[in-house]
Fold these 2 entries.
Entry 1:
Amino acid sequence: MTPEVSDPAIDGDARPGAPLDVRIARREDVATDIVALELVAPQGGELPPFEAGAHVDVVVEPGLMRQYSLCNDPRERHRYRLGVLRDPASRGGSEGVHRRFAEGQVIQIGRPRNNFPLATDDRPAVLLAGGIGITPLMAMAHALQARGTPFVLHQCARSADRVAFAAELAASAFAGSVRVHLDDGPPAQRFSLDEALADSNAHLYVCGPEGFIDFVTAGAAARGWPAERVHVEHFKAEVPQVGAAFTVVAARSGVTVEVPEGTSVAQALIAAGVDIPLSCEQGICGTCLVPVLQGTPDHRDEYQTDEEKAANTHMTPCCSRACSARLVLDA
Ligand code: FES
């Protein structure tokens, strides 16, 4: 969801979907291979609001954008905080953040969007974080604490040095609701799905590596948790965007961008100020569907039927690329 905000404190274009300039006010190591970045408006003042579970696109370098969840208290308006794990398989995203981002630097981000919102009813919540999956769940913990909804936050990590934000969570107002589980710790503190999922009346929120999510969601289904109360955030930071570079023209916006390998059409257009509504960012929901005026898309979505794809009248810019050197979209 893109907030409708026009804030004079923010540098640059204030259209919804337009990128924001932010300054890295603080960079700190919060665990092995994990840095936290605090982002503020370059001249101070308020940033556009965000909800627990939201993420932002971060321009790591020209043509390379990655998504990171916001982990701070959503009631804070003066900063965004991110946690970024250095991924050994990184093709430039997290590695670029770790190598290049420094305090004082001004970077570009997208406005917060939320594909992982909290339910609005007052059922208790179980938050399950695998590794760096703690980031959106930290924001959720702040929000649940603020509204008085009971919750337990389970933080699973391989070892103590990989528990992100450990000191901060231990000092938080909701420290009594946090349980840390280490793969190499004593048996008594190990993560138990039976204990974590004991209350099937609750909402379950899961974020972490795919294997962790599969383990938890299969366990929830087996224990009778209804699917509508199991909420999942997949890491999408390193979704492969493999293929040759091409040019995209957003005809209505009068914008032309190059889409290099590693960047999606939607990321390139959003970075150039074109408003592309996004939701799943995996080619499933159809939120981003745009008419194609010229050129041939390389359809990579699950949303359109084979017949619709063959007609080449629409494409999903969140994941699809181009077979032709140039695409003209009605965007
Ligand atoms: Fe869901 Fe593109 S955002 S299909």
Entry 2:
Amino acid sequence: MNTNSHDGDQIVAIDGPAGAGKSSVSRRVATALGFAFLDTGAMYRAATWRALRNGVALDAPEALTDSTRAMCLELTETDDGLRVVVDGEDVTDAIRTPEVTRAIYRLDQIPGVRRRLVELQREFGCRRPTVAEGRDIGTVVFPNARCKVYLDASLACRAGRRARELEARGIPVDLDALMEEIRDRDEKSMTRADSPLRRADDAALVDTTGMSLEEVVTRLVALARERL
Ligand code: DC
């Protein structure tokens, strides 16, 4: 087994708030480096979808932890992007609905839920060199990662990106409501007691406001080559 990647030698850790461009950037950086890609937000989404599907009470931390531990989760990279399967059911689109997005904070602040998902994330990172993105990758999941990046952008820019993503999937968007929702999610991510979103001391800050996807990818690939 290659234990180096767990030590951080072969991990690129990318954190940041909603809409900073983490997923699209990280996937491309992984391809450029020949690394695996791990979308940890998709894991919190999958756990939330499962709880909603099974009618687990969202105010019952133990039941939500049990549900997360019982989840059979498969993440597969395909030419069309990440495919997510929970307990044998393809939930690739279902985990991105506003209903799931609104409920995630009920799970993502529960220590038992986080512990389980972090365990799975470390197992994934142990197996192969990995670009992992999320909110606590550089601070909690892979604190020894040699390459850490904190991606940020203005609220207006992040909301605009999310609006275009949702519209492309045929979901109607109210931009003001979306900005409010992102502001609220930022606040919840940054102020929760367990693993709050913050820039690790040794993470490079990249503000992507006004940068194209290609520019951000080029910058991060260069950073990764320098640091790994
Ligand atoms: O990146 P995303 O929007 O798909 O993430 C969904 C939610 O999951 C986000 O609002 C916060 C939570 N999350 C987390 O708490 N820790 C992570 N490492 C990744 C996501």
